[in-house]
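Known limitations

Structure tokens in this collection are predictions and should be treated as such. Users comparing against experimental data should check residue numbering before alignment. To illustrate the layout, the record for YqaJ viral recombinase domain-containing protein is reproduced below. The input appears on top and the generated tokens appear beneath it.
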Amino acid sequence: MDNVIIKPAECLKVFEAFVNSLMVTSKFSENLEKATRGQHFNVNWKKARSVLITASVMGEVVMRKKIEPDNLVKKMCGYITIPDAVKRLQYGRKHEAVAIGDYTRSHLKTCDDVRIESFGLLVNPTYPYLGASIDGLVVCSKCGTGIVEVKCPYGSDVNDKPWRNVLPIECGKDKKIFCTERDSDLVFDENHNYMYQVQGQLALYELDWTDFVVWTKKGIDVQRINFSQTLWDEMLPKLKNFYVSGIVPELFTRRVRRGKSLY
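Generated tokens:
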């Protein structure tokens, strides 16, 4: 099998036909979502996402340069894992619930009835090779239904203080972060990977908006991001192409897993 050259157009046509034949029913999608609740604390969640392009890596796929796909395949298939002991991960997981609580209280200042629902991994039957895990589904009597995506920045420094210990707007002074201070407002960087994550989540959940929350120990900032059909239309062909040319060949050959080059 390792001697077979899988890059020619003939092979890619077979891989694409395989992807086009994939089918996920609404019932399967519902059962998978329930079975993967708890997300990174749930082994089912980790296994299920290893055969999908998930929203968290969509930016890397869309913006990748024309290089061999091996490193990205390693990451997406779960061959490379970030240890749970990494401080920024521990910090984010520890404070996510607190951040969502603060967001809910902030939202209730302008709306009378708001609740946040937890979800596992969602696979939309229209896109059976894609998946999305959200921090929470927002159900609001005034705004309707949307998504809340929480970021708890941890590391770099602003005036000799780590991001976690300054106001969110002060984080925007650091060029390393995903947002910028502009005219006394914190503005989300629309070219950052997180934008593609948000758009992917909205597309798969078929919703119109995400409240993007930046939370630190000193405060909270909320920016509403609307779904962009134009951006999604640009993303989707690139996502499918990478699944056809990167993920499917690896699922058939497991070359990358065995330390070999995919092509």
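For this record: The first strand starts at residue 53 and ends at 54. The chain has a mean pLDDT of 92. Please report discrepancies through the issue tracker.
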